[in-house]
Design brief:
The protein is an alpha+beta fold. The protein is built from six helices and nine strands.
């Protein structure tokens, strides 16, 4: 029975270090090319170096990252797809710039008018997280922006009571994936509450 007959195929992941084809997400971690491969890693790397067809990574190859690559083994097509996706997610979570994905998430803080809470305590704040520039995200809230299909891109409490960005009250760390960003958002909201602020958002 062949691999095709059994629904399996040889599949692995090749990871190649590139020069700064796009700005790095983390200053100490390089740009990477990540791709599935049915060929042994070294053989696939040699092919990529020799290829003449135009590509976004052509002339930007620095070295094979065998430490980050996964040699092909026989697996189902679903497992091959999952392997590539999980490798991609893990490298992005660490801060690598993979396949030109430059998204970085930021926890931001907005000062709200004291009328937004019955007992404003030390002050009323909104905590959120975004892959946009915080100033752009604040503008989305204030302009009551919506998605193309009508869903809200804003918080009604910020649209009504938002005064100004308070990035001096926001953490300086950045997150490299959505899940980590959401966790940082919730943790920072609790931190500000512990300091006596009334905090909206921070889900």
């Amino acid at each position: 029975m062949t691999s095709q007959d059994s629904g399996t195929c040889p599949s692995g992941v090749i990871v190649v270090e590139l020069d700064d084809v796009v700005p790095r997400r983390h200053p100490d971690l390089p740009n990477l090319l990540l791709a599935r491969t049915a060929s042994p890693i070294e053989q696939r790397f040699e092919f990529l170096q020799r290829r003449k067809q135009p590509s976004w990574f052509k002339d930007h190859i620095v070295a094979l990252r065998s430490d980050l690559s996964v040699e092909p083994t026989e697996m189902s097509r679903a497992a091959a797809k999952s392997l590539r996706q999980e490798t991609f997610r893990n490298l992005r979570r660490q801060g690598f710039t993979v396949n030109r994905d430059t998204y970085i998430w930021t926890v931001y803080v907005i000062e709200l008018d004291s009328a937004a809470a019955k007992d404003p305590g030390r002050g009323v704040l909104y905590v959120g997280e975004t892959s946009l520039a915080p100033a752009e995200r604040f503008e989305q809230h204030k302009s009551q922006a919506r998605k193309a299909k009508g869903g809200k891109l804003h918080s009604p409490v910020v649209a009504r009571y938002g005064v100004q960005l308070r990035m001096d009250l926001a953490p300086t760390d950045r997150a490299f994936d959505k899940e980590s960003s959401k966790q940082a958002e919730a943790a920072w909201a609790e931190h500000l509450r512990s300091l006596g602020y009334v905090v909206k958002g921070g889900h």
